[in-house]
Amino acid sequence: MNRFIFVKNKILIIFLIINCVGISQAESQKGFWENHKHIWLSGFNYKNHKIPFWCTALTTIALSVKDEEIYRNIKQFQNRNPSINKPSETITLLGDGYVDISILGAFFLKGLLLNDHRATKTASLGFKGMIHTGIIVQVLKHVTGRQRPGAGKGKDRWHGPSGALKRYNSGRWALYDAFPSGHTIAAWSLATVVSHQYAHLKYVPPLAYTLAAGAGLSRVTEDTHWASDVFFGAVIGYEITRQIIQIESSETIAVYPQRNGIQIVYAF
């Protein structure tokens, strides 16, 4: 129950921030859910994918077959090189919801205080990405019910929808929601937004995606995810956020908060 309240509060915080930001006049509450429907259904339209669907599916399946072996090899390497433990514990925070909210909040404050439209738009895209990807990842987690590697001592088990019931048993929340990796999705979503908004700074995209990849890898070293969870999460985080950016690019009206009011920008 405490975990349920934690997740509900996190979602509430994101919605409140979006309402305060008020970036997109064109995206009303109805428009938000229409966009989410478009994003969800576009998963069946392979032409919408920059990363081919068949490539994602086959790679995920291939990794899932080898997941136990990959996990053992990574843990053996980690045991031989304990110096990676601290960096792993740190970089994994890039996928934490509250950390990402703080980062995007910093972009918003910069935009508000310095009239930096790029920073404000980054916050808007980032928060919307968190909600869209968050909804989809929770649906997939509840449907698959995959056991985390740390829960079964490196044994891979898929419980299906019944795993969702086990999630809510006392002390078992985080044991049956491995697929896909929510931290990885969040990290790649944030990296995609920042890379798009600051593509003119040549070092930003490679740095952002390198950090996102590190956050994904850390989910394995932290015993919370399998390699296939991480790979699929990275693709989902990237693809969904890329679609959000495309949708936002087609909007014609945007509202930017100012210290002394608002500025409405019409683009065509």
Automatic annotation (TrEMBL):
Phosphatidic acid phosphatase type 2/haloperoxidase domain mapped to chain residues: 130-244
One Pfam family here: PAP2
Name assigned to this protein: Phosphatidic acid phosphatase type 2/haloperoxidase domain-containing protein
Organism the protein comes from: marine metagenome
